Amino acid sequence: xxxxxxxxxxxxxxxxxxxxxxxxxxxxxxxxxxxxxxxxxxxxxxxxxxxxxxxxxxxxxxxxxxxxxxxxxxxxxxxxxxxxxxxxxxxxxxxxxxxxxxxxxxxxx
Amino acid sequence: xxxxxxxxxxxxxxxxxxxxxxxxxxxxxxxxxxxxxxxxxxxxxxxxxxxxxxxxxxxxxxxxxxxxxxxxxxxxxxxxxxxxxxxxxxxxxxxxxxxxxxxxxxxxxxxxxxxx
Lengths: 109, 116
Fold this sequence. Notes:
The structure holds 2 protein chains of 2 kinds. By secondary structure, chain A is mostly beta strands. Chain A is built from no helices and 11 strands. Chain A has strands at 5-7, 10-14, 19-24, 31-37, 43-50, 55-58, 61-66, 71-76, 85-93, 96-99, 103-108. In chain A, strands 2, 4, 5, 9, 10 and 11 form a 6-stranded mixed β-sheet that branches. A 5-stranded antiparallel β-sheet of chain A has the order 1-3-8-7-6, with no helix packed on it. Chain A starts with a strand and ends with a strand. Chain B is mainly β. Chain B has strands at residues 4-7, 10-13, 19-25, 31-38, 42-51, 54-57, 65-66, 76-78, 87-94, 106-107, 111-115.
């Protein structure tokens, strides 16, 4: 399977703290994407990083990609209660997007 | 408003009764895809389509059919639903034919299906 591992499975932090989520994968990719899902709703795209990029920023989000280690990290800075959601990394390759099982982030007010 | 729509949003049915879940996008996207989401398993791709009349199997295609006769529509058909197809289903679209492998995917709101 192309699915990798997301780490941790669940994360609980205080509002204002930073949240770091990790994703590893096994095969080569074209890009790696992060999505957010609020309970039972559709997924919302957060950020896409291509295989030839090492770091991207979008607002309070920072994503890194290390293709030599086949891993990516999503950092959410200055977290808010509204960031409470499930976060998925997805590997893009061979006309497909393959999702991990997700990370549950809880931000306590 | 640019969006992906799915209907119905909720459906309870019985084993063996054929059903169709519709998906439509108004963004003129080339690529469309269906996923199912189950607890502890994440999202798994059922079928995808890179263009009109072009469809291909994803990771879990058994028990499902799709068609892509028009660019905007990509219905998911369960000809004989079974309880193991109880799940949350998402349709998604992407601007380019390479789909999520090269571009962002835009998701519909989901269809919660229960098969008794």
